[in-house]
Amino acid sequence: EAGVTQFPSHSVIEKGQTVTLRCDPISGHDNLYWYRRVMGKEIKFLLHFVKESKQDESGMPNNRFLAERTGGTYSTLKVQPAELEDSGVYFCASSPLTGFRLAGDYNEQFFGPGTRLTVL
Amino acid sequence: DAKTTQPPSMDCAEGRAANLPCNHSTISGNEYVYWYRQIHSQGPQYIIHGLKNNETNEMASLIITEDRKSSTLILPHATLRDTAVYYCIATYGGSQGNLIFGKGTKLSVKP
Residue B29: pLDDT above 80? Predict the structure, then answer.
């Protein structure tokens, strides 16, 4: 079974340009998450989709970031315009959606390899 | 989610058990303890989780103290490939929500 895939693996852009990152979750996983680690910092949550709906976007840093998940399959994260502080590694994760909340339902998220973004 | 505290780094000899501690003194009654790890330049990987009882799977064992204020992740026979940053996360089970990663413990397994 294929894992979570992310494209591109690396992206180098100039400040002010636009970049779009793509994430393909594991087939059948309705939950999709974006995280990022900027230089020297901890991994931080960005947002969470359930199917095509944004469940939680409290971690999105500002309105230069736009995430979409049309059709509830793959997701894109667009940064426009990119700034120097956006450099870092962007991770996508997915997990299956259970029909209801269970005690002991574990929150195993499957992470992709990440996209390393460098803004010059 | 409760805050967790971990030592910044640890060393372990190859083939020996690695015991990684985590303090979560403010954990609430229905928060689980999860462990993830990140091997260099890869995405984080789930290891194990638990609520009250000790847990074991093919990767590791998790020992949670009776008062649930701390836990220990045990890798029974560490290999060089276990060198990674290990994250202890306290979060609600079944939340389907985001994970809060701290600084973790950098485990170095040495030959």
Answer: yes
